[in-house]
C-alpha cells in the first residue's frame, strides 16, 4: 500500500491490478540525493500525471522507469513480478516506452527506420532488412494513429508534432503497456496538441497506462485521471484529477499558496523604444510592423510556425532581414549584428535557452558576465573576483538557486534557474528593450511565478518588453497589448481590455479569405480542446510547401551526388587526356586500376567509422605495419601460403583496430585523440619491428606479386578483392541491423543510447573492421609495389582515405553516406592522383592541387548540407 494522502488503490474506479508498482525508489548522484522513497502505481487505461517543480525529481524517476538510470534502492514490479530495469532494452522488453521531451529521433534516417531501429524485420537466408515489409508495417501503425506520413520520408524533415506521432507509432510497435510522455506538448500548437490528446485517449481505451508530464495546468485537468505530486525528490500525494483543483496542486508542488501565476499591473507607457516597419524575410515573414514603448509589455501570440521567433531573430540581428526598418531608441539598425543590437540597448532571450542561451559546461558566473566581458577585464585580463561578485549580485536579485554557488556549471541547473541565468546575462547590459521568446517554457510553477514577477518589475522600471509566448493565459495576463501573427504576417492587434481567448485564437487560426469564421468559446478558453474525431488527420498530412528553384537544384545535387562524381570524373579524364595523351594508354589505365583497390579497401572501413561520428587517423600506420610484418614473415619463411599472409594481415589489422576501439569505447578517449596517439605508436612499431630495413622484391614470393598481375578471368586479384569488399560493405551498411545501427549512432548518439542500441559494441566492431581492412590493404600494397619501405609505406595514406570517403558523400559529422559513393570517391581521387603525375607537375604542385581538391570537396559537401538543413527547416515551419 502506498503511503499517500489518498491510497492509489483506493482511488481506482476499476479494480484491475497495477501494471507497474514502484516502492521506496531512491537515487543520488554523487553526494546529492535526487529521489528519496518515491512511490508510484500505474494502472491500465489511465493517464497518470506526474507533477512537480523543476528539480523535483520527475526526470530522474522517468529515466529509472525507462531503464536509463538504475535506482540506488527500492523495488519495481511489472504485472506483479519484481524486475530490474537495467537498460532501455530491458524496459522495452517489459512493455515500457519513453517518449522524451525532445524526440529521440534519427534525423538522417527514414520514418520507418525510426520506428523499427534495432528491430527491423529480416528476410531471406542472408537475414537482410526487409525494407518493403518494414515500410508497410510502419504505414499501418501511422494509419492507426490517424497520421498520414510517407514511411520513406526523412525524419529530420518532419515537424516536431509529426516526429512525436512517429515516436507514438514506435511505442505501439513495441506493444507497450506503459507509455511515458515527458512534456510532449511543450513545442506543439493547440491543433497539434488536440491531435496528440486524441491519440492518448485512444491508447487509454486500449488499456495502456500513460504517464504524462506537463507544466500546463489546463492540460493536466483535461487529459489526466490521477495526479501524483513530487517535491524536492520526495513523494507528496496522489489524487484523482476530478477531486482536486489547480490551486491545490500548486500548493502541494511548491509547499506554499500560489495566489496568482501572473502578476502584472499595467502602467502608463512612455516613449517608443522599439519600432519595426515592413520587416520581411523571404519564406518566413513579410511586412511586419510593430512598436514597443517604455514600460510596456507587448505580447506576440500565434501558432507554432507563424513566424514569431523569426521576427525576433531578425530584430536582434541573429538573421538578416530582406527588407524593412528597425529603430531602437530612435537609432536605425541596418545589416546589424547581435553586438550592434546590444550596443543600442537591445537584448534577446532566445526560445532554446539550452542551445542558444547558455554555455552548458561553463560556470554560472561566466555565462552571466559573457556580454560584458570588457567591463570585467583589466588590461585584457578577466578579473575573476569581480566576475564572481557581479554574478552573485545578479543571482541574488533574481533569486537564483544553485546547488553550490556561481562556480556551478550552468548545464546542471533546473529549467527555471537556467532561465534566470539567461535573463541575468542580458540584464547586465542594461537594455532599454528586452525581447523574451517563450520565457517560461519548460519551467515549473514556482519558477514561472518568479519570472513573471521579474518581467513585471522590469516593465515598471520603464523597460520595453516584447514577449513571445504560446501560453495563452500568460499572454492575456502579462501583456499590455497583444499582437497576433499568422502565416508570417500580423493578423491582429488588441489592447489589454480588448484581448480575449476567442479573439486571439480566431486571429491566429483563420485563413485568408475566411470572413466571419469564429472559433468556439470551448476551444479558445482552453487552448487545448477536446480530442478531434478519430479519423482526422494530423497536420503532418499536409502537402509539402513550395520551394524555390535553387532549393530544388540543391536537393537534386544531393540526391544524385554519385552522378555528379561520375560527371566530374569524365570531365577530368577528357581535360587530362588533351594535355597528356599517355593518360589514356592501356598501361596507365592499368596503373590506375591497380592503385585504386588499396585506397578503396581502406576507405570502406573508414566509411563505417565516419558514419558513426568517429575517425581513424592511424589507418595509414596500420596499413604500413601490417605490410612490414607480412613482408618480414615472407622473408623468414618464403614458403608461407599466400592465403596465410592475407589472413595474417587481416588479423593483425583487426587487433590494431581493436586497440583503437577499446580506447574509444572503454577508455572514453575521443577518437581523434586516441587514433592520433596510436598513429605515432604504430608508426614507431614499423621501425622497431623492421629495424629500419626495407622489404625488397627479392624477399617477396612470386605468388604474392602475382596477385597484382592477373587471375583466371583476366582481372588482377587485388581488384577482385576490392570489388568483393565493396559489395560486402554495401550489403553490411544497407541490409543489416548492424549497418543501420551505424547510421543511427552517427545521426543521433543520444537517441541511440535511449533506444538501447549497443553503441559501444557497434563502434568497437567498426574500429576492428577498419583495422582488418587496412591490414588487407597493406598486404595488397606489398603485392602491388613489390617492396615495403618503412619510411614511406602508409605515410600520409590516412589523408587520401578520409578524403575519398568524404568526396564520396559520407558526412564527416556522421549519419549519411553509402558504400557506392565511397567507391566513386576512391575512383575519382585515384584518377586525380594519377592525372597529376602524368601531367608532369612538380611534386609541390601535386600536393597543392591535391589538397585544394580535397578542401573543395569538403566545402562543397558542407554547403549542400547547410542548404538542405535550411530547406528542411522551412518545410517544418510551413507544416
Any chance you could write out the topology, listing elements then pairs?
Elements: E1 20-29, E2 32-42, E3 47-51, H1 58-65, E4 73-78, E5 81-83, H2 88-93, E6 96-99, H3 111-116, E7 122-123, E8 128-129, H4 131-144, H5 160-173, E9 178-182, H6 190-205, E10 209-213, H7 217-223, E11 226-231, E12 234-240, H8 246-254, E13 272-281, E14 285-293, E15 297-302, H9 308-316, E16 323-328, E17 331-333, H10 338-343, E18 346-349, H11 353-357, H12 364-369, H13 373-376, E19 377-378, E20 381-382, H14 384-397, H15 415-427, E21 433-437, H16 445-460, E22 464-468, H17 472-478, E23 481-486, E24 489-495, H18 501-509, H19 521-525, H20 549-559, H21 561-579, H22 586-611, H23 619-636, H24 642-665, H25 671-690, H26 702-705, H27 717-735, H28 737-747, H29 749-754, H30 759-785, H31 797-807, H32 819-838, H33 843-878
Parallel strand pairs: 3-10, 3-11, 6-9, 9-10, 15-22, 15-23, 18-21, 21-22
Antiparallel strand pairs: 1-2, 1-4, 4-5, 7-8, 11-12, 13-14, 13-16, 16-17, 19-20, 23-24
Task: Give an overview of the whole structure.
48% of the residues lie in helices and 15% in strands. The protein is an alpha/beta fold. The strands form six sheets. It has a six-stranded mixed sheet with strand order 6-9-10-3-11-12, sandwiched between helices. It has a six-stranded mixed sheet with strand order 18-21-22-15-23-24, sandwiched between helices. A hairpin with a 2-residue loop joins β23 and β24. The longest helix is centred in the last third of the chain and has 36 residues. The N terminus is likely disordered.
Amino acid at each position: 500500500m502506498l503511503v499517500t494522502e489518498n491510497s492509489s488503490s483506493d482511488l481506482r474506479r476499476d479494480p484491475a491490478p497495477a501494471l507497474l508498482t514502484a516502492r521506496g525508489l531512491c537515487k543520488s548522484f554523487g553526494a546529492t540525493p535526487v529521489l528519496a522513497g518515491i512511490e508510484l502505481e500505474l494502472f491500465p487505461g489511465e493517464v497518470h500525471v506526474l507533477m512537480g517543480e523543476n528539480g523535483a525529481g520527475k526526470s530522474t524517476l522517468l529515466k529509472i522507469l525507462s531503464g536509463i538510470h538504475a535506482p540506488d534502492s527500492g523495488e519495481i514490479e511489472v504485472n506483479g513480478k519484481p524486475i530490474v530495469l537495467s537498460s532501455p532494452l530491458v524496459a522495452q522488453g517489459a512493455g515500457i516506452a519513453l517518449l522524451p521531451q525532445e524526440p529521440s529521433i534519427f534525423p538522417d534516417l527514414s520514418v520507418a527506420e525510426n520506428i523499427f531501429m534495432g528491430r527491423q524485420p529480416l528476410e531471406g537466408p542472408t537475414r537482410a532488412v526487409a525494407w518493403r515489409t518494414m515500410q508497410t508495417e510502419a504505414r499501418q501503425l501511422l494509419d492507426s494513429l490517424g497520421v498520414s506520413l510517407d514511411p520513406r520520408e526523412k525524419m529530420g524533415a518532419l515537424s516536431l508534432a509529426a516526429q512525436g506521432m512517429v515516436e507514438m507509432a514506435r511505442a505501439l510497435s513495441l506493444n507497450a503497456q506503459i507509455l511515458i510522455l515527458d512534456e510532449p506538448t511543450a513545442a506543439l500548437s493547440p491543433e497539434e496538441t488536440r491531435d496528440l490528446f486524441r491519440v492518448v485517449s485512444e491508447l487509454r481505451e486500449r488499456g495502456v497506462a500513460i504517464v504524462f508530464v506537463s507544466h500546463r495546468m489546463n492540460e493536466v485537468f483535461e487529459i489526466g485521471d490521477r495526479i501524483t505530486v513530487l517535491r524536492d525528490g520526495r513523494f507528496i500525494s496522489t489524487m484523482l484529477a476530478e477531486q482536486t483543483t489547480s490551486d491545490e496542486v500548486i500548493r502541494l508542488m511548491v509547499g506554499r499558496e500560489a495566489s496568482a501565476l501572473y502578476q502584472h499591473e499595467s502602467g502608463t507607457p512612455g516613449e517608443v523604444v522599439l519600432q519595426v516597419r515592413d520587416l520581411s524575410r523571404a519564406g518566413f515573414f513579410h511586412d511586419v510592423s510593430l512598436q514597443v514603448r517604455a514600460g510596456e509589455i507587448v505580447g506576440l501570440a500565434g501558432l507554432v510556425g507563424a513566424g514569431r521567433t523569426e521576427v525576433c531573430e531578425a530584430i536582434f540581428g541573429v538573421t538578416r532581414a530582406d527588407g524593412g526598418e528597425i529603430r531602437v531608441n530612435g537609432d536605425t539598425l541596418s545589416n546589424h549584428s547581435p553586438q550592434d543590437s546590444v550596443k543600442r540597448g537591445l537584448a534577446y532571450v532566445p526560445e532554446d535557452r539550452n542551445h542558444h542561451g547558455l554555455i552548458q559546461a561553463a560556470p554560472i558566473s561566466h555565462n552571466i558576465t559573457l556580454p560584458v566581458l570588457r567591463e570585467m577585464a583589466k588590461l585584457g585580463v578577466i578579473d575573476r573576483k569581480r566576475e564572481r561578485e557581479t554574478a552573485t549580485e545578479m543571482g541574488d536579485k533574481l533569486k537564483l538557486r544553485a546547488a553550490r554557488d556561481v562556480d556551478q556549471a550552468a548545464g546542471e541547473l533546473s529549467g527555471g534557474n537556467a532561465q534566470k541565468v539567461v535573463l541575468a546575462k542580458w540584464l547586465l547590459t542594461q537594455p532599454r528593450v528586452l525581447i523574451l521568446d517563450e520565457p517560461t517554457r519548460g519551467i515549473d510553477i514556482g519558477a514561472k511565478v518568479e519570472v513573471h514577477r521579474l518581467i513585471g518589475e522590469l516593465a515598471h522600471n520603464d523597460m520595453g518588453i516584447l514577449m513571445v509566448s504560446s501560453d495563452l493565459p500568460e499572454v492575456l495576463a502579462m501583456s499590455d497589448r497583444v499582437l497576433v501573427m499568422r502565416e508570417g504576417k500580423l493578423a491582429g492587434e488588441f489592447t489589454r481590455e480588448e484581448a480575449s481567448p476567442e479573439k486571439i485564437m480566431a486571429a491566429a487560426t483563420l485563413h485568408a479569405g475566411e470572413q466571419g469564421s469564429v472559433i468556439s468559446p470551448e476551444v479558445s478558453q482552453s487552448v487545448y480542446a477536446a480530442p478531434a474525431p478519430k479519423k482526422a488527420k494530423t497536420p503532418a498530412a499536409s502537402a509539402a510547401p513550395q520551394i524555390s528553384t535553387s532549393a530544388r537544384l540543391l536537393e537534386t545535387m544531393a540526391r544524385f551526388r554519385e552522378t555528379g562524381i561520375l560527371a566530374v570524373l569524365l570531365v577530368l579524364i577528357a581535360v587530362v587526356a588533351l594535355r597528356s595523351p599517355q593518360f589514356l594508354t592501356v598501361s596507365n589505365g592499368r596503373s590506375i586500376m591497380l592503385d585504386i583497390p588499396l585506397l578503396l579497401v581502406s576507405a570502406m572501413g573508414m566509411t563505417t567509422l565516419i558514419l558513426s561520428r568517429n575517425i581513424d587517423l592511424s589507418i595509414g600506420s596500420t596499413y604500413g605495419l601490417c605490410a612490414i610484418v607480412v613482408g618480414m614473415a615472407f622473408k623468414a619463411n618464403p614458403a608461407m601460403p599466400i592465403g596465410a599472409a592475407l589472413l595474417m594481415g587481416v588479423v593483425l589489422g583487426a587487433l590494431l583496430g581493436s586497440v583503437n576501439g577499446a580506447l574509444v569505447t572503454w577508455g572514453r578517449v575521443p577518437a581523434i585523440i586516441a587514433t592520433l596517439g596510436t598513429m605515432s605508436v604504430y608508426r614507431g612499431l614499423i621501425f622497431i619491428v623492421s629495424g629500419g630495413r626495407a622489404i625488397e622484391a627479392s624477399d617477396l614470393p612470386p605468388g604474392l606479386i602475382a596477385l597484382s598481375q592477373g587471375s583466371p578471368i583476366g582481372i588482377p586479384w587485388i581488384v577482385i578483392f576490392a570489388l568483393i569488399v565493396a559489395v560486402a560493405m554495401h550489403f553490411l551498411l544497407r541490409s543489416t541491423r548492424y549497418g543501420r545501427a551505424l547510421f543511427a549512432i552517427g545521426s543521433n548518439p543520444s537517441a541511440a543510447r535511449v533506444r538501447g542500441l549497443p553503441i559501444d559494441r557497434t563502434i568497437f566492431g567498426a574500429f576492428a573492421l577498419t583495422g582488418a581492412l587496412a591490414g588487407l590493404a597493406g598486404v595488397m600494397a606489398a603485392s602491388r609495389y613489390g617492396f615495403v619501405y618503412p619510411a614511406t609505406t602508409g605515410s600520409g595514406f590516412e589523408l587520401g582515405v578520409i578524403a575519398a570517403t568524404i568526396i564520396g558523400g559520407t558526412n564527416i559529422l556522421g549519419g549519411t553516406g553509402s558504400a557506392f559513393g565511397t567507391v566513386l570517391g576512391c575512383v575519382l581521387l585515384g584518377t586525380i592522383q594519377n592525372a597529376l603525375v602524368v601531367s608532369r607537375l612538380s611534386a609541390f604542385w601535386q600536393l597543392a592541387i591535391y589538397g585544394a581538391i580535397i578542401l573543395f570537396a569538403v566545402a562543397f559537401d558542407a554547403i549542400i548540407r547547410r542548404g538542405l538543413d535550411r530547406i528542411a527547416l522551412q518545410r517544418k515551419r510551413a507544416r
